[in-house]
Specification:
The complex is a heterodimer of chains A (263) and B (401). Chain A has ten helices and eight strands. Chain A has 263 residues and is α+β, with helices and mostly antiparallel strands. In chain A, a hairpin with a 2-residue loop joins strand 7 and strand 8. In chain A, helix 3 crosses helix 6. Chain A is globular. Chain B has a single domain, classed as Peroxisomal Thiolase, Chain A, domain 1 (3-Layer(aba) Sandwich). In chain B, strand 1 and strand 2 form a beta hairpin. The interface between A and B is large, with 69 and 75 residues.
Chain lengths: 263, 401
Amino acid sequence: MSMLRVHVEGVGLWSPQLADFAALRALLAGATPPAPSPRPAAATLPPNERRRAPESVLLAVEAAGQAVAMSGRDAAALACVFASAHGDQAITDYMCATLARSPAELSPTRFHNSVHNAAVGYWTIATGCHAPSTAICAQRASFGAALLEAASQALAEQRAVLLVCSDTTGSGPLAEVTGCAQAFGCALVLAPQASSASLGRLDLQLGTAPTDTSLPEPLQGWRAGNPSAASLPLLALLAGAGGHCELPVAATLGLRIDMENVA
Amino acid sequence: MPILMTPLAVTAYTATSAMGSGLAAQLDALEHARSGLRPNDISSAPLACWVGRVDGVEDVVLPAALGAWDCRNNRLAWLGLNQDGFLERVHAARTRYGADRVALLLGTSTASIGATEEAYRRLDADGGFADDMLRPAIHAPHSLAAFVAAALELAGPCLTVSTACSSSAKVFASAERMIRLGLVDAAVVGGVDTLCDSVLFGFNALELVSPEPCRPFDAARNGISIGEAAGFALLERIEAAADAPRLLGYGEASDAHHMSTPHPDGLGAELALNDALARAGLDAARVDYINLHGTASQKNDEVEAALVGRVFPVRTRASSTKGFTGHTLGAAGIVEATIALQAIEHGLVPGNLGGDTPDPICGAHFAWRNERQRVDVALSNSFGFGGNNACLAFARAGFAA
């Protein structure tokens, strides 16, 4: 089985408890980082877009913006892999409720924001990015599948890739079946070659059982409450001294990740 | 610049749309210029438009072991998988390579959102989902791929690409990268989207739906007709099947312009086209046929006709087949890929059905009626909301650029 080796150049993170990757580092070191403001800043978006954009877009763009800033790369040159297990749940809830009641009243803006690639669409528009961009999902394996997709693209195309995985809180009756208790978004900039910007080296190997690496609380609870938080074992490795973890990449397939710190 | 791609063999493919179930029905409809569009008879409230509805989806019964996946989208997927011996071909690949060495990469725009709509139409008295709708897996956008993985008993990488109307074209790119890197030996690609209120009333709210059958590239075109479809293809290395048609290249690019209208100069579409030609090692003049995105929206057709005119010589024939199927959204990429493959296999350039009064922006490239000619190289364009563009390049077995 082939091994994929990629280099992490930037990490972004946002949840109601963690404003960024530094906050995760602080938390794991025993500190209590201050909670971020309730709405992700998403400073990459122009102000008018920021006001209008749905929460799912703000969350993804916030995480993406942090990771790209850390990498020092030009966002316009990065291929984009955006993942979300459930897309914009507030819009799905709105659309299904409106369609059940009075379908002719459906909002055209909410409809075009309902596409799974809305966040990556807004991101490419805001950054002037003409590179390939995609939006994917794989239920609770969405982060693992997106990491595999992004690493494949980085290596096959020999270019840096922005990986984002985010899910918002569940809304309305839909919340019962999505089980998203709180928002969580993360992002990585992956490069095919080591460089002065490298923070860590990831060796990815397919073929293990799709097990979840155990986590300390409160991370364990956060992971249970949001499919995008399945990334936390890897984020914790990146925040620490390296090591290995396993992530689900499909219903019956896992990914072993060996991470070595270079920063 | 992308590197020249080692072609992949398309060892099996199939499509089910309003033209019919399976490739023979599709070819027959194309040869006889027979549209599958009909007056809308499916939305939960009246909406005066035409739709590309697949006959018999309601009567499909999933195997008992897969019963928890039941919904219109997965029924259409199952109907599609059962055409053209596709299940048997996947079974053979699974046996040859191992279930974990075959990737499953499917595109869909709305997956089984129709089931979520239904759950909201008949909520319990306490405002929750009825017991029979409490099936979390069908209320997520990965519903389709997870169902097909179970149906095909595949255990390799499995993901859903959901980039609106380019979804099931982009899966070919993901598959090629995974095969090239040795992560898998084969990939099942494709996509399924079904008619549902979200897309019918959503596109209607955007004033993009025609009250008549859609007329791609017609001077009087006034919007899209929405359709549903399922399509699949099996990709392997060419050493496994030297006599199979080939995926020569693919291109992907972003407009970075607007969420729901294309770049006015077709920038992302042209970047995707150039990317596909470069990977395939082709000059534009080598392309015999392009199956266009051609939705019959004002903007798409204007931008795409201009792109064809500035890149290709008139010997390259071009048409949209949305007049046969309607716009099948996330399934359009795979359905039109199979039409491009049939053009190669049968020497048929399908006519641009519905373009009775050609828009003057269209050059002499356009095949307004069916044309019989040898087709060695065929492209398929797919563009989606968010400015997401993809282009696929196919060729007959043994073709060398």
